[in-house]
Amino acid sequence: MKYVEVGSEPNRARVSAIGVGCWQFGSRDWGYGQEYGDTTAVEIVHRALDLGVDLVDTAEIYARGVSESILGRALDGRRDKAFVATKLWPVLPTADRVYEHGRLSAMRLGISTIDLYQVHWPNPVVPDQQTMAGMRRLQDDGLVRHVGVSNHSAAQWRSAEAALGRPILSNQVNFSLAQRKPEREVLPHAQAAGRLVIAYSPLAQGLLGGRYDAAHLPSGPARANNPLFLPENLERATPLITALREVAAAHDATPAQVALAWLIAQPNVVAIPGASSVEQLEHNVAAADLELGSDELARLTSESDRFQPVRGLPAVPGLLKARFGKP
Q1: Is 62 a catalytic residue?
Q2: CA 269, CA 263: separation in Å to the nearest integer?
Q3: CATH number of 3-209+255-291, picked from 3.40.1060.10, 3.40.50.360, 3.20.20.100, 3.40.50.1000
Q4: Whose CB among 154, 202, 255, 269 lies 3.0–4.6 Å from 244's, allowing a Cys bridge?
C-alpha cells in the first residue's frame, strides 16, 4: 500500500492513498439491501485493514447515522488499524451543535477519538468562527484529532482555517478524470500548504469503470440522478473510456484501477472509492501499486480535457426524462 503523509508535528497525518468510502453502508441510494450492511460492509472493512488500508470515511448524514454504526461494528477490536474520518452535516453549525454532533458521531462509531472530523459543506449563514469554535473545543477535549472540510473552495478552506486558528488537514472534494475542478485552486493550495485532498467519487460513481454506455444505463437513484449517466454524456465519455481500457490492457489492469492510479499519482491526493463487494475492494486497493508512465498519464489527462459533459441547467431536461419518462 502507498501512503501519503502531510503536515508536521503535532498536526502530522499519514494515510493510505486508497481508502474506503462508506456512503453506501446502510444507504438505500445504492440499492444494495440490508444484507450488504449487515455482512458485506463489515467484510469490506476487515479486508481493507488486512491489506494495509487505514483511511475509512463516513458521515452522520449517510443513512442518518447507520453508516457510522456499521463502520463502528466493523472496527470493533481493530480500532488501532484505522484512520477514522466522518463528517458533520452543517445545519446551523453553531459551536454547541458542532460539539454535540461530534460527540454523537464518536458514540455511533464506538470510538473515543475521531481521527478526522470534517464539515460536510460550507454554511452560508453561520460564520466560520462559530463552527470552528466547536471544532476547537472537540480537539481540546480529545474527541477529535484533526479537523477537515469538504466541498469547500480554496478560499473557503483558508477562511475556515483562519477561524480555527490551527491547520485544517484536508478538503474532501469531488475529484476524478471526469471532474477536474479541484485542480484549479484546491489542489494547488493543498500542495503549497502541506494539506491533503481527499477525492470522493474518484471513479465518477462507476462511469470510469467502463461498465456503462448509452445502451447499458445504471440503476439506483444515486446514479439515476447524476447527469454523467445521461445517454449523451455516456457517448461523450467514449474516447476517455477507450483510453482507460487501452492503458489498462498494457498493465493487465482494469479501467477503474487506471483511473484511481491517475488520481493518486498527484501529490497530496488520496482517493476513497466505495465497494459493493470484497472483490471490488481488492481491485481498488491494487491500484495503489499501479505505476503509470508519464506518456500514459498525459494521454489520460488529454482525453479528460476533451470530455465535456452536459451539466447544470442544460442537463435538467435529460434528467427529468430519465426519471419520469418525459422532458
Answers
A1: yes
A2: 7
A3: 3.20.20.100
A4: 255
